[in-house]
Amino acid sequence: MKKEYADIIHRCFRCGWCKLPLNFKDFNCPSYLKYRFESFSSGGRLWLIRAWMNGEIQTSERFAKILFSCVTCKNCVEACAMPKIRQYLVDMVIAAREDMVEQGVIPPGVRDYLKAVSISGNAYKMPQEQRAIWADGLDIPLYSGQEYLFYVGDVGSYDEVGKKMARSVAMLLKKADISFGILASDEITDGNEVKTLGEAGLFEQIASQNIEKFKGLGVRKIITLSPHAFNSMKNEYPKLGGNFDVYHYTQVLNAAIKDISMAEVDLKVTYHDPCYLGRWNNEYWAPRSVLRSVPGLELVEMDRNMQNALCCGGGGGNFFTDILGTGPDSSSRVRVKEAIDTGASVLAVACPICYRMLSDAVKAEGLEDRIEVRDIADIVNDAVAV
Ligand code: SF4
Ligand code: SF4
Q1: Cβ(75) to ligand 2 under 6 A?
Q2: For 311-335, what is each residue's pLDDT tens digit?
Q3: Which residues share a beta bridge with 222?
Protein backbone atom coordinates (compact mmCIF):
# COMPACT_ATOMS: atom_id res chain seq x y z
CA MET A 1 0.00 0.00 0.00
CA LYS A 2 1.16 3.55 -0.73
CA LYS A 3 3.21 4.97 2.13
CA GLU A 4 0.91 8.01 2.44
CA TYR A 5 -1.97 5.67 3.30
CA ALA A 6 0.09 3.39 5.54
CA ASP A 7 1.04 6.50 7.52
CA ILE A 8 -2.55 7.63 8.20
CA ILE A 9 -4.62 4.46 8.41
CA HIS A 10 -4.15 4.30 12.22
CA ARG A 11 -5.93 7.65 12.63
CA CYS A 12 -9.38 6.02 12.48
CA PHE A 13 -10.48 5.88 16.12
CA ARG A 14 -13.52 3.66 15.53
CA CYS A 15 -16.21 6.15 16.44
CA GLY A 16 -18.53 4.49 13.92
CA TRP A 17 -19.99 7.63 12.37
CA CYS A 18 -19.00 6.43 8.90
CA LYS A 19 -21.86 3.94 8.73
CA LEU A 20 -24.53 6.60 9.28
CA PRO A 21 -25.90 9.34 7.03
CA LEU A 22 -25.31 12.95 8.07
CA ASN A 23 -28.81 13.05 9.63
CA PHE A 24 -28.03 9.86 11.66
CA LYS A 25 -31.40 8.35 10.67
CA ASP A 26 -30.37 4.84 9.63
CA PHE A 27 -27.35 2.79 8.62
CA ASN A 28 -26.11 4.15 5.31
CA CYS A 29 -23.12 1.89 4.62
CA PRO A 30 -24.49 -0.89 2.37
CA SER A 31 -22.01 -3.53 3.50
CA TYR A 32 -22.67 -2.81 7.20
CA LEU A 33 -26.41 -2.68 6.53
CA LYS A 34 -26.23 -6.17 5.06
CA TYR A 35 -23.83 -7.91 7.47
CA ARG A 36 -24.06 -5.89 10.72
CA PHE A 37 -20.45 -6.64 11.66
CA GLU A 38 -18.17 -3.69 12.45
CA SER A 39 -15.56 -5.15 10.08
CA PHE A 40 -17.98 -4.52 7.18
CA SER A 41 -18.10 -0.76 7.95
CA SER A 42 -15.43 1.69 6.89
CA GLY A 43 -13.76 2.00 10.32
CA GLY A 44 -13.72 -1.74 11.01
CA ARG A 45 -12.46 -2.47 7.52
CA LEU A 46 -9.60 0.01 7.95
CA TRP A 47 -8.56 -1.61 11.23
CA LEU A 48 -8.53 -5.01 9.58
CA ILE A 49 -6.50 -3.69 6.65
CA ARG A 50 -4.03 -2.23 9.14
CA ALA A 51 -3.71 -5.57 10.94
CA TRP A 52 -3.29 -7.33 7.57
CA MET A 53 -0.57 -4.89 6.52
CA ASN A 54 1.24 -5.49 9.83
CA GLY A 55 1.06 -9.25 9.38
CA GLU A 56 -1.27 -9.67 12.38
CA ILE A 57 -3.90 -11.42 10.25
CA GLN A 58 -3.48 -13.56 7.16
CA THR A 59 -5.26 -13.25 3.83
CA SER A 60 -8.43 -15.35 3.97
CA GLU A 61 -11.71 -15.81 2.14
CA ARG A 62 -13.45 -13.82 4.89
CA PHE A 63 -10.96 -10.95 4.68
CA ALA A 64 -11.36 -10.84 0.87
CA LYS A 65 -15.15 -10.75 1.23
CA ILE A 66 -14.89 -7.85 3.68
CA LEU A 67 -12.59 -5.92 1.35
CA PHE A 68 -14.55 -6.51 -1.85
CA SER A 69 -18.03 -6.00 -0.39
CA CYS A 70 -17.41 -2.26 -0.05
CA VAL A 71 -19.44 -0.63 -2.80
CA THR A 72 -17.21 2.49 -2.82
CA CYS A 73 -20.32 4.63 -2.30
CA LYS A 74 -18.42 7.26 -0.26
CA ASN A 75 -21.06 7.64 2.42
CA CYS A 76 -18.19 7.15 4.86
CA VAL A 77 -16.24 9.95 3.19
CA GLU A 78 -19.14 12.33 3.86
CA ALA A 79 -19.74 11.12 7.38
CA CYS A 80 -16.29 10.41 8.86
CA ALA A 81 -15.45 12.39 11.98
CA MET A 82 -11.74 12.68 11.13
CA PRO A 83 -11.08 15.43 8.55
CA LYS A 84 -7.49 14.31 7.95
CA ILE A 85 -8.39 10.80 6.78
CA ARG A 86 -11.91 11.34 5.46
CA GLN A 87 -11.03 11.92 1.80
CA TYR A 88 -8.80 8.81 1.68
CA LEU A 89 -11.18 6.23 3.17
CA VAL A 90 -12.24 4.64 -0.11
CA ASP A 91 -8.79 5.14 -1.69
CA MET A 92 -7.31 3.07 1.13
CA VAL A 93 -9.74 0.20 0.46
CA ILE A 94 -8.92 0.34 -3.26
CA ALA A 95 -5.19 0.38 -2.45
CA ALA A 96 -5.59 -2.74 -0.28
CA ARG A 97 -7.50 -4.41 -3.12
CA GLU A 98 -4.61 -3.53 -5.43
CA ASP A 99 -2.24 -5.33 -3.06
CA MET A 100 -4.51 -8.38 -3.09
CA VAL A 101 -4.74 -8.37 -6.89
CA GLU A 102 -0.94 -8.19 -7.05
CA GLN A 103 -0.69 -11.19 -4.74
CA GLY A 104 -3.25 -13.04 -6.89
CA VAL A 105 -5.57 -13.75 -3.95
CA ILE A 106 -8.90 -12.35 -5.08
CA PRO A 107 -12.44 -13.81 -4.83
CA PRO A 108 -13.63 -15.86 -7.84
CA GLY A 109 -16.28 -13.24 -8.75
CA VAL A 110 -13.62 -10.54 -9.03
CA ARG A 111 -11.29 -12.80 -10.99
CA ASP A 112 -14.06 -13.74 -13.45
CA TYR A 113 -15.04 -10.12 -14.00
CA LEU A 114 -11.47 -8.98 -14.65
CA LYS A 115 -10.90 -11.91 -16.98
CA ALA A 116 -14.08 -11.15 -18.96
CA VAL A 117 -13.15 -7.50 -19.40
CA SER A 118 -9.59 -8.36 -20.32
CA ILE A 119 -10.51 -11.00 -22.92
CA SER A 120 -13.83 -9.74 -24.34
CA GLY A 121 -13.54 -5.95 -23.88
CA ASN A 122 -16.78 -6.05 -21.87
CA ALA A 123 -18.07 -7.51 -18.61
CA TYR A 124 -20.74 -9.66 -20.27
CA LYS A 125 -18.40 -11.83 -22.37
CA MET A 126 -20.57 -10.83 -25.34
CA PRO A 127 -19.35 -10.30 -28.91
CA GLN A 128 -18.34 -6.71 -29.54
CA GLU A 129 -20.42 -6.81 -32.76
CA GLN A 130 -23.57 -6.98 -30.63
CA ARG A 131 -22.66 -3.84 -28.75
CA ALA A 132 -24.93 -1.48 -30.66
CA ILE A 133 -28.05 -3.66 -30.86
CA TRP A 134 -29.66 -1.13 -28.51
CA ALA A 135 -29.54 1.42 -31.36
CA ASP A 136 -31.34 -0.71 -33.97
CA GLY A 137 -33.83 1.38 -35.94
CA LEU A 138 -32.80 4.68 -34.36
CA ASP A 139 -30.58 5.82 -37.24
CA ILE A 140 -27.70 6.88 -35.01
CA PRO A 141 -24.47 7.63 -36.90
CA LEU A 142 -21.04 6.34 -36.03
CA TYR A 143 -18.83 9.01 -34.53
CA SER A 144 -17.13 10.99 -37.28
CA GLY A 145 -16.45 14.47 -35.92
CA GLN A 146 -19.87 15.33 -34.45
CA GLU A 147 -19.91 17.69 -31.46
CA TYR A 148 -20.23 14.80 -28.97
CA LEU A 149 -19.25 11.17 -28.69
CA PHE A 150 -22.08 9.33 -26.90
CA TYR A 151 -20.28 6.68 -24.81
CA VAL A 152 -22.80 3.99 -23.82
CA GLY A 153 -20.72 1.51 -21.80
CA ASP A 154 -21.15 -2.18 -20.98
CA VAL A 155 -24.43 -2.04 -19.05
CA GLY A 156 -26.07 0.25 -21.61
CA SER A 157 -24.92 -2.06 -24.40
CA TYR A 158 -25.81 -5.48 -23.02
CA ASP A 159 -28.24 -5.30 -20.09
CA GLU A 160 -31.94 -5.19 -21.06
CA VAL A 161 -32.83 -2.16 -18.91
CA GLY A 162 -29.48 -0.55 -19.78
CA LYS A 163 -30.30 -0.86 -23.50
CA LYS A 164 -33.72 0.67 -22.90
CA MET A 165 -32.03 3.58 -21.13
CA ALA A 166 -29.47 4.06 -23.93
CA ARG A 167 -32.34 4.25 -26.45
CA SER A 168 -34.24 6.80 -24.35
CA VAL A 169 -31.20 9.04 -24.00
CA ALA A 170 -30.27 8.80 -27.69
CA MET A 171 -33.86 9.59 -28.77
CA LEU A 172 -33.93 12.60 -26.51
CA LEU A 173 -30.54 13.86 -27.70
CA LYS A 174 -31.91 13.66 -31.22
CA LYS A 175 -35.08 15.53 -30.28
CA ALA A 176 -32.87 18.22 -28.72
CA ASP A 177 -30.93 18.51 -32.01
CA ILE A 178 -27.67 17.59 -30.34
CA SER A 179 -24.98 16.46 -32.75
CA PHE A 180 -23.53 13.11 -31.63
CA GLY A 181 -22.22 9.79 -32.82
CA ILE A 182 -21.42 6.41 -31.23
CA LEU A 183 -18.55 3.93 -31.48
CA ALA A 184 -20.81 0.85 -31.74
CA SER A 185 -18.67 -2.32 -31.97
CA ASP A 186 -15.51 -0.23 -31.57
CA GLU A 187 -16.51 0.76 -28.04
CA ILE A 188 -14.87 -1.09 -25.12
CA THR A 189 -15.43 -0.88 -21.38
CA ASP A 190 -14.47 2.40 -19.63
CA GLY A 191 -12.56 0.68 -16.80
CA ASN A 192 -14.09 2.42 -13.77
CA GLU A 193 -14.94 -0.86 -12.01
CA VAL A 194 -11.62 -2.40 -13.02
CA LYS A 195 -9.95 0.42 -11.11
CA THR A 196 -12.16 0.19 -8.04
CA LEU A 197 -11.65 -3.59 -7.92
CA GLY A 198 -7.90 -2.98 -7.68
CA GLU A 199 -6.56 -3.97 -11.12
CA ALA A 200 -4.61 -0.75 -11.66
CA GLY A 201 -2.51 -2.15 -14.52
CA LEU A 202 -5.52 -3.36 -16.51
CA PHE A 203 -7.29 -0.05 -15.89
CA GLU A 204 -4.32 1.85 -17.29
CA GLN A 205 -4.32 -0.38 -20.36
CA ILE A 206 -8.07 0.09 -20.98
CA ALA A 207 -8.00 3.84 -20.34
CA SER A 208 -4.97 4.30 -22.62
CA GLN A 209 -6.67 2.31 -25.38
CA ASN A 210 -9.79 4.48 -25.09
CA ILE A 211 -7.78 7.71 -24.95
CA GLU A 212 -5.82 6.77 -28.04
CA LYS A 213 -9.01 5.89 -29.91
CA PHE A 214 -10.81 9.09 -28.87
CA LYS A 215 -7.83 11.23 -29.83
CA GLY A 216 -7.48 9.46 -33.16
CA LEU A 217 -11.11 10.24 -33.96
CA GLY A 218 -10.75 13.87 -32.90
CA VAL A 219 -13.19 13.53 -29.96
CA ARG A 220 -13.35 16.61 -27.75
CA LYS A 221 -16.64 16.23 -25.93
CA ILE A 222 -18.12 13.06 -24.45
CA ILE A 223 -21.62 12.32 -23.15
CA THR A 224 -21.76 9.25 -20.91
CA LEU A 225 -24.83 7.18 -20.14
CA SER A 226 -23.37 5.95 -16.88
CA PRO A 227 -22.05 7.99 -13.94
CA HIS A 228 -19.33 5.32 -13.60
CA ALA A 229 -17.89 6.03 -17.06
CA PHE A 230 -18.40 9.74 -16.37
CA ASN A 231 -16.22 9.41 -13.28
CA SER A 232 -13.35 7.50 -14.90
CA MET A 233 -13.27 9.64 -18.05
CA LYS A 234 -13.57 12.92 -16.15
CA ASN A 235 -11.24 12.21 -13.23
CA GLU A 236 -8.89 9.35 -14.16
CA TYR A 237 -8.30 9.68 -17.91
CA PRO A 238 -6.66 13.15 -17.56
CA LYS A 239 -3.96 11.54 -15.37
CA LEU A 240 -3.09 9.39 -18.40
CA GLY A 241 -3.17 12.23 -20.93
CA GLY A 242 -6.85 12.00 -21.90
CA ASN A 243 -8.28 15.49 -21.52
CA PHE A 244 -11.84 15.61 -22.84
CA ASP A 245 -14.89 17.61 -21.83
CA VAL A 246 -16.95 14.90 -20.18
CA TYR A 247 -20.66 15.24 -19.35
CA HIS A 248 -23.21 12.97 -17.84
CA TYR A 249 -26.29 12.88 -20.07
CA THR A 250 -28.42 14.71 -17.50
CA GLN A 251 -26.01 17.67 -17.66
CA VAL A 252 -26.35 17.95 -21.44
CA LEU A 253 -30.13 17.54 -21.23
CA ASN A 254 -30.35 20.16 -18.50
CA ALA A 255 -28.72 22.70 -20.81
CA ALA A 256 -30.92 21.72 -23.78
CA ILE A 257 -34.28 21.10 -22.16
CA LYS A 258 -35.50 24.70 -22.21
CA ASP A 259 -35.77 24.37 -26.02
CA ILE A 260 -37.82 21.18 -25.89
CA SER A 261 -41.57 21.57 -25.74
CA MET A 262 -43.39 19.17 -23.45
CA ALA A 263 -46.98 18.38 -22.61
CA GLU A 264 -48.30 18.31 -19.04
CA VAL A 265 -47.93 15.01 -17.16
CA ASP A 266 -49.49 13.81 -13.94
CA LEU A 267 -46.62 12.09 -12.12
CA LYS A 268 -45.23 12.00 -8.61
CA VAL A 269 -41.56 11.09 -8.84
CA THR A 270 -38.72 10.54 -6.39
CA TYR A 271 -35.10 10.55 -7.55
CA HIS A 272 -32.31 8.19 -6.50
CA ASP A 273 -28.85 9.85 -6.54
CA PRO A 274 -26.20 7.58 -8.10
CA CYS A 275 -23.06 7.66 -5.92
CA TYR A 276 -20.73 8.19 -8.88
CA LEU A 277 -22.66 11.27 -9.96
CA GLY A 278 -23.51 12.63 -6.50
CA ARG A 279 -20.93 11.94 -3.82
CA TRP A 280 -18.11 11.21 -6.28
CA ASN A 281 -18.70 14.19 -8.56
CA ASN A 282 -20.94 16.54 -6.62
CA GLU A 283 -23.65 16.63 -9.30
CA TYR A 284 -26.96 16.66 -7.50
CA TRP A 285 -28.81 19.38 -9.42
CA ALA A 286 -28.76 18.57 -13.15
CA PRO A 287 -30.97 15.44 -12.82
CA ARG A 288 -33.38 17.22 -10.47
CA SER A 289 -33.49 20.24 -12.74
CA VAL A 290 -34.35 18.07 -15.78
CA LEU A 291 -37.15 16.40 -13.83
CA ARG A 292 -38.48 19.74 -12.59
CA SER A 293 -38.64 20.98 -16.19
CA VAL A 294 -41.36 18.45 -17.00
CA PRO A 295 -44.69 20.30 -16.63
CA GLY A 296 -46.94 18.75 -14.00
CA LEU A 297 -44.23 16.47 -12.56
CA GLU A 298 -44.05 16.60 -8.76
CA LEU A 299 -40.60 15.79 -7.43
CA VAL A 300 -40.53 14.50 -3.87
CA GLU A 301 -37.39 13.59 -1.93
CA MET A 302 -36.64 10.42 -0.05
CA ASP A 303 -35.55 10.83 3.54
CA ARG A 304 -31.96 10.09 2.48
CA ASN A 305 -31.09 12.18 -0.54
CA MET A 306 -28.13 13.94 -2.14
CA GLN A 307 -25.02 13.57 0.12
CA ASN A 308 -27.05 11.25 2.37
CA ALA A 309 -28.43 8.99 -0.37
CA LEU A 310 -28.31 5.24 0.23
CA CYS A 311 -26.34 3.48 -2.55
CA CYS A 312 -28.22 0.91 -4.68
CA GLY A 313 -25.48 -1.59 -3.77
CA GLY A 314 -24.06 -1.96 -7.26
CA GLY A 315 -20.95 0.23 -7.00
CA GLY A 316 -17.32 -0.74 -6.54
CA GLY A 317 -17.72 -3.65 -8.96
CA ASN A 318 -20.42 -5.34 -6.86
CA PHE A 319 -22.91 -5.15 -9.72
CA PHE A 320 -20.72 -7.64 -11.56
CA THR A 321 -19.14 -9.63 -8.72
CA ASP A 322 -22.22 -9.79 -6.44
CA ILE A 323 -20.03 -10.11 -3.37
CA LEU A 324 -22.37 -7.95 -1.31
CA GLY A 325 -25.21 -10.25 -2.31
CA THR A 326 -28.98 -9.95 -2.24
CA GLY A 327 -31.60 -10.43 0.49
CA PRO A 328 -34.05 -8.32 2.51
CA ASP A 329 -31.23 -6.25 4.06
CA SER A 330 -29.56 -5.46 0.75
CA SER A 331 -29.47 -1.71 0.18
CA SER A 332 -31.44 -1.89 -3.09
CA ARG A 333 -34.41 -3.45 -1.27
CA VAL A 334 -34.16 -1.01 1.62
CA ARG A 335 -33.97 1.81 -0.90
CA VAL A 336 -37.13 0.91 -2.84
CA LYS A 337 -39.09 0.76 0.43
CA GLU A 338 -37.81 4.23 1.22
CA ALA A 339 -39.01 5.36 -2.21
CA ILE A 340 -42.46 3.88 -1.50
CA ASP A 341 -42.64 5.93 1.71
CA THR A 342 -42.57 9.15 -0.34
CA GLY A 343 -45.88 8.22 -2.04
CA ALA A 344 -44.22 8.50 -5.48
CA SER A 345 -45.34 6.16 -8.23
CA VAL A 346 -42.03 6.50 -10.09
CA LEU A 347 -38.49 5.99 -8.83
CA ALA A 348 -36.31 7.96 -11.26
CA VAL A 349 -32.74 6.85 -11.94
CA ALA A 350 -29.82 8.30 -13.90
CA CYS A 351 -27.51 5.27 -13.97
CA PRO A 352 -27.98 1.92 -15.75
CA ILE A 353 -26.56 0.05 -12.74
CA CYS A 354 -29.03 1.70 -10.35
CA TYR A 355 -31.76 0.99 -12.91
CA ARG A 356 -31.07 -2.76 -12.89
CA MET A 357 -30.44 -3.01 -9.11
CA LEU A 358 -33.58 -1.09 -8.14
CA SER A 359 -35.82 -2.76 -10.78
CA ASP A 360 -34.78 -6.16 -9.43
CA ALA A 361 -35.40 -4.94 -5.86
CA VAL A 362 -38.93 -3.77 -6.74
CA LYS A 363 -39.66 -7.26 -8.06
CA ALA A 364 -38.05 -8.98 -5.05
CA GLU A 365 -40.20 -6.87 -2.72
CA GLY A 366 -43.36 -7.54 -4.80
CA LEU A 367 -43.92 -3.81 -5.26
CA GLU A 368 -44.50 -3.75 -9.02
CA ASP A 369 -48.03 -2.39 -8.60
CA ARG A 370 -46.86 0.41 -6.26
CA ILE A 371 -43.79 1.88 -7.95
CA GLU A 372 -42.02 1.79 -11.30
CA VAL A 373 -38.30 2.41 -11.82
CA ARG A 374 -37.75 4.69 -14.82
CA ASP A 375 -34.80 6.52 -16.23
CA ILE A 376 -34.97 10.32 -16.41
CA ALA A 377 -34.71 10.42 -20.22
CA ASP A 378 -37.60 7.98 -20.54
CA ILE A 379 -39.78 10.21 -18.34
CA VAL A 380 -38.92 13.28 -20.42
CA ASN A 381 -39.38 11.38 -23.70
CA ASP A 382 -42.94 10.48 -22.74
CA ALA A 383 -43.72 14.13 -22.00
CA VAL A 384 -42.26 15.18 -25.35
CA ALA A 385 -44.18 12.51 -27.22
CA VAL A 386 -47.58 13.43 -25.71
S1 SF4 B 1 -16.00 7.85 11.08
FE2 SF4 B 1 -13.84 7.93 10.41
S3 SF4 B 1 -12.73 7.83 12.37
FE4 SF4 B 1 -14.81 7.16 12.88
S5 SF4 B 1 -14.77 4.89 12.63
FE6 SF4 B 1 -15.36 5.73 10.66
S7 SF4 B 1 -13.45 5.91 9.46
FE8 SF4 B 1 -12.91 5.71 11.65
S1 SF4 C 1 -17.69 3.34 0.65
FE2 SF4 C 1 -19.82 2.86 1.21
S3 SF4 C 1 -19.83 0.61 1.43
FE4 SF4 C 1 -17.69 1.26 1.48
S5 SF4 C 1 -17.25 1.51 3.67
FE6 SF4 C 1 -17.83 3.53 2.87
S7 SF4 C 1 -20.03 3.67 3.32
FE8 SF4 C 1 -19.48 1.50 3.47
Answers
A1: yes
A2: 999 999 999 999 998 899 999 999 9
A3: 149, 246
